Amino acid sequence: MGVHAGLTVDRITRAAAALADEVGIEKVTISALAREFGVKDASFYSHVRNLQEIRTRVAILASGEMNECIATAIAGRSGGEALAAFADAYRDYALRHPGRYAATQLRLDPSKIANTSAFERSVELTYAVMRHYDLDEPDLTDAARLLRATFHGYISIEASGGFNHPREVDRSWRQAISALHMLLEQWPRTEKTEAADKPKDM
């Protein structure tokens, strides 16, 4: 960039997101961003409190972008078709924007994201896809966690080049999503007594 003028929180956040995709979110620092803008580190502290705030803002930005991609993909779809569209949009965003995606996986201070709807929207989109499978709590939460674990695990291995078998990665992905759809339709329902006894805050 090398542009000194016009430092704003939005520009800092977007620069941090772009840098995260290039070098990884863990390598985004105040000093690295200051070099991008051609300013001293101290110039940033009139706009953001610290590095954690920048990473939180990148996570919020990325979550919002990802939500838009997923919402567009699943619009007008249901069942297995919606699940596949959701999964594909999730995977596509994560592979195209690895640094941004990594930011969405960070453990964030709940008080710092209380005024944003990005993460709530993510849950809403997940549950919208899950509605077809007619699951009640706690099965709904268990199933949603399975989806997240499957998507994140697969994408993480794929991004690191960990799949060495000659079988095409895309074909395995398709089979995995089809298998998830079949599993969700045959989900082992939690007994009502267990659900009733389960603490509400778990």
TrEMBL record:
<feature type="DNA-binding region" description="H-T-H motif">
    <location>
        <begin position="29"/>
        <end position="48"/>
    </location>
</feature>
<dbReference type="Pfam" id="PF13305">
    <property type="entry name" value="TetR_C_33"/>
</dbReference>
<dbReference type="InterPro" id="IPR036271">
    <property type="entry name" value="Tet_transcr_reg_TetR-rel_C_sf"/>
</dbReference>
<keyword id="KW-0804">Transcription</keyword>
<dbReference type="InterPro" id="IPR025996">
    <property type="entry name" value="MT1864/Rv1816-like_C"/>
</dbReference>
<protein>
    <submittedName>
        <fullName>TetR/AcrR family transcriptional regulator</fullName>
    </submittedName>
</protein>
<feature type="domain" description="HTH tetR-type">
    <location>
        <begin position="6"/>
        <end position="66"/>
    </location>
</feature>
<keyword id="KW-0805">Transcription regulation</keyword>
<keyword id="KW-0238">DNA-binding</keyword>
<dbReference type="InterPro" id="IPR001647">
    <property type="entry name" value="HTH_TetR"/>
</dbReference>
<dbReference type="InterPro" id="IPR009057">
    <property type="entry name" value="Homeodomain-like_sf"/>
</dbReference>
<dbReference type="Pfam" id="PF00440">
    <property type="entry name" value="TetR_N"/>
</dbReference>
